[in-house]
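Blackboard transcription, Thursday session:
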Amino acid sequence: MKKAQENLGELRNDIIISAPIQLIRSKNHEENATCEINCDEFGYSGCSGDCGCDGDNGDSNPGCSDD
Amino acid sequence: MYEDVMNKIKDYFLLDTEQPNCYLIYAPLKTILFATNKTGANAFLQLKNGNILPGAEKILEVLEKSKINLLPSNFNKNYNADITICPTFCCQLRCLYCFALGGEKINDLSLNASKAVIDLILHRYSLQKIQSSRLIWHGGGEPTLAWEVLKKTSLYHRQEAIALGIKPQLSIVSNGVWTKEVRGWIIDNFDRITISCDGPSDIQDRQRPLSNGLPSSHFVYETLRAMAYHRVNFGIRATITENNVKRMPEMVRFFHKLCHPRILQFERLSICGRCEESKIQTGSSEDYIKYFKKAFEVAKDLDISLVCSGVRIFRRTNYYCGVGGHAVCVTPEGFLTTCHRVDNILHTLAKELIFGKWNGYQYQWEQKQLERLQNNLSVNNFDRCRDCFCKYTCAGGCIASRVNPVEKQISDEHCQIIRELSRFRLILIAKERGLLKDIKIKEEVNYHEKGTRKSG
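(Written on the board underneath:)
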């Protein structure tokens, strides 16, 4: 029992995690060169403006592959 | 407590980075990403299976107590006054894969029907304040061939939107085969232009020939050069087939040299429409993944964003596209549909997606049908997506492709592509932001501390 608890304690110590990052673009990132993550999806496929940016630019149907 | 944890953790996912002792934990709804070691990964998997091991609270803490600002939870409740008009089936090209068999039908939308759909969309929501209204011209055929309808309706939309205090925006998706007059007017008046072009002339001319079989490339390149010269907000969409799947990196360099685009969209061929006659094929999904990754790196070095639909790691959504009751599109025959591919009553999805029609005087349409779509087509209803880490970014893929028996297998391959390219993008970001390095450093510190403890 004691051995098992020691192992579990070791397990706790052995878990390593990094600091988290957020996958989000800053507001109005088109104009903002210091966008938190160098946004490479602005514009066209997929951006629906959910993050507060200006949204897609040209989608007939945001997300659709035909645009 | 237990149920609470289990409920929360179902939307957290573990990703292999293919680097020793390095894994990613990804929470798409919170748009959070962090790395962990193998022990952490195992504890996380145990947690998913309902076993809360010592140390697992560290992982939960990051996910639950992060100071990161969360985004609003109602991320799909956007009221908009956007409208897509497909004004004609006419086309100068005979693309080998055209979904609408463009050029084989001659129907055009009348100016009255075109203006009426502007009125419909601008007054669709009477209670909500609409900020902007985007009018998008799209095919079916080539929209600029319905020139008078396009020009007059665009001006009408601008005038009516401004009168209502709504910001008008104008976009077009076109084949780029334009006269001088068309080019000049579009450059002067459009906010956003997407040109379909498949790359170097040997590919473009083979896959997208003129209706008489002659090459189309020089017309399209002239348009693209003009876009660059006038610094227009434009992008290029290319269809990736067996002919060019291995040439994606070359295509990026080609477009860069031709017109310095900021955004390129490389979409895998969808087997429908004229593909049956032309027998054109997709190429393997493995090749698509391999060469897209290479092309992505080339594009990054050239400061170009290379994208494809479904791979959108910054987005959260319950719907792949506007088909779930959010898009309003009018076809050349005056049908209102939520998917421009479903443009006739014989289509398998016509009953579900066509929700109205122009009767010569006005549009008759069913709001309840749109509400049904919003309920039915949410990714939360798709069993196949339940445990997928792309659930809230891809949100289920193209519905029109899924119901096409020919595309069934391709649709499964599409999932493989989306998952692999999404993982690729997340790993790249983790590397760029130092997450993987962080794990290695902490691992070394841990190792030395253990050694010290043991020897002490």
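Lecturer's comment: Residues 408-432 of chain B form the longest helix (25 residues).
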